[in-house]
From TrEMBL:
InterPro entries (UniProt xref): AB_hydrolase_fold, AB_hydrolase_lipase, Hydrolase_4, Lipase_euk
Family matches, as Gene3D superfamilies: alpha/beta hydrolase (3.40.50.1820)
GO BP annotations, alphabetical order: lipid catabolic process
PANTHER family: LYSOSOMAL ACID LIPASE-RELATED
Occurrences of domain Partial AB-hydrolase lipase (ranges): 34-94
Entry similarity comment: Belongs to the AB hydrolase superfamily. Lipase family.
Organism per entry: Tetranychus urticae (Two-spotted spider mite)
Protein name: Lipase
Length: 420
């Protein structure tokens, strides 16, 4: 097996979309974002946001049909931003319910209990029912943002030559500025998961003026430093020459790629579903004690999971360096790009926002507690909320897919939002 196949195998253990059960009668199985929204009785608008480098992002605006047009303009906009290899549907598929109901912005226990049973544990629908203007973002390259003004993702390799830096420099500000222009608000809320937090930390450090536009920034399973990540990807990143090979090769990581097909062939045709879940999900950032196992096929077959291989390489570079720096193009490539032999480091100390809330867990194998502690230390501004989930087994994707997500995460999120 050559080096690229080795990294593909190791990456496949890291990728959320690599999983096991392919049969389900659940109507959410392989449902698109459009179908998920309509199935809960919501309406939506699909907006196409063009970035300065020509990528076209598909962003969904959830519309509660019980809110009239004049009232909609008064609802605070909230952006939900997925993580690495995620899609906007991540915020809509945790539970089978969450149907649209008359908008109620009350945060008292009686009102919330009607919206937040285990059956209604979807953050996007929850916030829309609590009188927020919910915008569901999709990063460049996934199935909902697989478009460009001049490049064809199926033919042009150049389309896939993007990194985390481009999500920071282009996607994130484009989404923010577009939504603020559409709504007339001066600021919006940003709720990111995993890489969806990383790109906001990067933006706030590079352009501190965006602190006035993002109130609050709620970071679920915050990722910035990744040196202590306890996942197979960490070990793949340390194989000599592997990141160079992957950087040279470039291209796409998707559900149909070698990355995911390898693990399915090696594992999921050999063991039964229970064995596959027990063996694979700890590597993927779940804890099976926390996840609703009947929803596993839904989580694993969501439509549109794809990104660039350079995105993964960028993670690997930062694992090895112990810092969060811009993409390393090699000595000569860095000289051309940055005017120096090594890539510049993102400076958290430049962040001036006091509207940042961190929700993290000691059991998170991707957002390691040591890395989170370093993040908090380096931000150097007071946090709006510093919340550690009081469940030892709480893992990375439990922030999205746990059967107890409302009890431990969304209740805190709604409480924070109510103060802005």
């Amino acid at each position: 097996m050559d080096s690229f196949k080795i990294v593909s195998l190791l990456l496949s253990i890291f990728v959320l979309s690599a999983t096991v059960n392919c049969d389900s009668n659940d109507p959410d199985y392989e449902a698109t974002i459009d179908q998920l929204i309509e199935s809960r009785g919501f309406n939506y608008e699909k907006h196409y946001i063009e970035t300065k480098d020509g990528y076209i992002l598909g962003v969904y605006r959830l519309i509660n049909p019980f809110v009239d047009q004049s009232s909609r303009s008064k609802l605070k906009p909230i952006v939900l931003q997925h993580g690495f290899l995620g899609v906007g549907a991540d915020f809509l598929i945790n539970a089978p319910g969450g149907n649209a109901v008359p908008c109620n912005n009350s945060t008292d226990n009686s009102s919330l209990s009607k919206l937040n049973s285990t059956e209604n544990n979807n953050l996007g629908f929850l916030l829309a029912n609590l009188c927020y203007d919910v915008w569901i973002s999709n990063s460049r390259g996934n199935g909902y943002s697989r478009n460009h003004t001049t490049l064809n993702p199926d033919k042009d390799a150049e389309f896939w030559k993007y990194t985390i830096d481009d999500l920071i420099a282009y996607d994130t500000p484009a989404v923010i500025d577009y939504i603020l222009k559409q709504t007339g608000f001066s600021s919006l809320g940003w709720i990111g998961h995993s890489q969806g937090t990383m790109i906001m930390f990067g933006l706030l450090s590079e352009k501190p003026e965006y602190s006035a536009k993002v109130k609050p920034f709620i970071a679920l399973a915050p990722v910035f430093y990744v040196q202590h990540m306890k996942k197979a990807f960490k070990y793949a990143a340390k194989i000599p020459g592997l990141l160079f090979l992957a950087r040279t090769r470039g291209g796409e990581i998707s559900k149909s790629s070698l990355v995911t097909n390898t693990i399915k062939k090696l594992a999921c045709t050999t063991w039964n579903d229970e064995m596959c879940n027990a063996l694979l999900y700890p590597f993927l950032g779940y804890d099976m004690d926390n996840v609703n196992v009947t929803r596993v096929p839904i989580y694993s077959t969501k439509i549109g999971s794809s990104t660039s291989l350079w995105n993964a390489v960028h993670f690997g570079q930062n694992i090895n360096s112990g810092k969060f720096h811009k993409f390393d193009f090699g000595r000569f490539g860095n000289k051309r790009r940055y005017g120096q032999s090594k890539p510049p480091v993102y400076q958290l100390s430049k962040i001036n926002s006091t509207s940042i809330a961190l929700l993290y867990a000691k059991g998170d194998a991707l957002s390691d507690p040591e890395d989170v502690s370093q993040l908090i230390k380096d931000i150097q501004v007071p946090l709006a909320r510093d919340h550690c989930v009081p469940v030892p087994s709480w893992n990375h994707y439990d922030f999205l897919f746990s059967k107890d997500a409302y009890e431990y995460i969304y209740s805190i999120v709604t409480e924070i939002l109510s103060t802005y």
